[in-house]
Automatic annotation (TrEMBL):
UniProt gene name: rsmG
Main location as per UniProt: cytoplasm
A UniProt-annotated Pfam family: GidB
Keywords: Cytoplasm, Methyltransferase, rRNA processing, S-adenosyl-L-methionine, Transferase
Name of protein: Ribosomal RNA small subunit methyltransferase G
Chain segments annotated as coiled-coil in the UniProt record: none
Organism lineage string: Bacteria, Bacillati, Actinomycetota, Actinomycetes, Micrococcales
Function: Specifically methylates the N7 position of a guanine in 16S rRNA.
Family of this protein: Belongs to the methyltransferase superfamily. RNA methyltransferase RsmG family.
Disordered as annotated region, ranges: 216-254
PANTHER family listed in its UniProt record: S-ADENOSYL-L-METHIONINE-DEPENDENT METHYLTRANSFERASES SUPERFAMILY PROTEIN
InterPro entries: rRNA_ssu_MeTfrase_G, SAM-dependent_MTases_sf
EC number from the UniProt entry: 2.1.1.-
Binding site for S-adenosyl-L-methionine: G79, L84, A130, E131, R145
Chain intervals with Gly residues compositional bias: 245-254
Organism: Phycicoccus sonneratiae
Length: 254
């Protein structure tokens, strides 16, 4: 698709499955999709070719991971880029406190504008590399998509995790293979045996996979961030309560 960089592209209509995930926040999700198709493209945060598949590959793809997090959880999204998964999660789950971590000024400026435009009071934007923010930010939950291979991602994210916290790494089909290959390195970081979890199988053609890794060993350095509800109880079934509203749609995981 050719794009002149100025004319806003039209996002596709939300697939029926989106209503099951976003509930009464579906209009907010549609506004996020429209922003991604407009300034997300013109500011170079996503490619114009992503626009026709904005929902299945990006907005819905990220939002289905919401069932990993308990009520009122504090979640750091490392390498948020265009707000993925962080903004999609915050739209789907207003109870979450979401911290977007992104090193590039151009991207954090865009993210701050989107957060303001969508009125997402539960979201804050933090400029910096994950490894630089260790000691000033922490949470019981850290998530990331398409940032780095598992062992490197874990090296960056573990210092942001509170003791007993969990890294929820969005991964593609190779999740189990990557986990197997990096298991020794992950163990050395104090992470327990990883679990590959499926999300969104009811609304996406292909479920999204996450590798979930709990920090088992006490860290030497404590985080300075405010604590919120820990990872003891997943929010399993939260979306099942809303699941009667819509059917499935095709998608993918990167
Ligand atoms: C391929 S993009 C993915 C963006 C988004 N997570 C997504 O799935 O669309 C990778 C992002 O990670 C950011 N990044 C790279 N290294 C990082 C680090 N050490 N700490 C935090 N973010 C980083 C980049 O600036 C970029 O925005």
């Amino acid at each position: 698709m050719k794009h002149d960089g100025e004319t806003p592209l039209t996002p596709p209509a939300a697939p029926s499955g989106a209503a099951a995930v976003f509930g009464d926040r579906i209009e907010l999700a549609e506004r996020f999709a429209a922003i991604l198709a407009d300034t997300g493209v013109s500011h170079g945060l996503i490619g114009p070719r992503e626009v026709p598949r904005l929902w299945e590959r990006h907005v819905l793809n990220c939002a289905v991971v919401e069932d990993a997090f308990p009520e009122d959880a504090r979640v750091i999204d490392v390498g948020s880029g265009a707000g993925l998964p962080g903004i999609a999660l915050a739209v789907a789950r207003p109870d979450l406190e979401v911290l977007l971590v992104e090193p590039m000024l151009r991207r954090t400026t865009w993210l701050e504008g989107v957060v303001a435009e969508l009125g997402l009071r539960s979201v804050t934007v933090h400029r910096g590399r994950a490894e630089e923010l260790a000691g000033s930010l922490s949470a019981p939950w850290v998530t990331a998509r398409a940032v780095a291979r598992l062992d490197k991602l874990a090296r960056w994210c573990v210092p942001l995790l509170e003791e007993g916290g969990t890294l929820v790494a969005m991964k593609g089909r190779s999740a189990a293979e990557e986990l197997g290959e990096d298991a020794a390195a992950l163990g050395r970081l104090g992470l327990g045996e990883g679990v590959v979890t499926e999300h969104g199988g009811d609304v996406l053609e292909e479920p999204v996979l996450t590798v979930d890794l709990r920090l088992e060993r006490r860290r030497e350095r404590g985080g300075a961030g405010r604590r919120s509800k820990g990872p003891g109880s997943r929010r399993a079934g939260s979306r099942r309560r809303r699941a009667g509203r819509a059917g499935g749609e095709p998608g993918r995981q990167d």
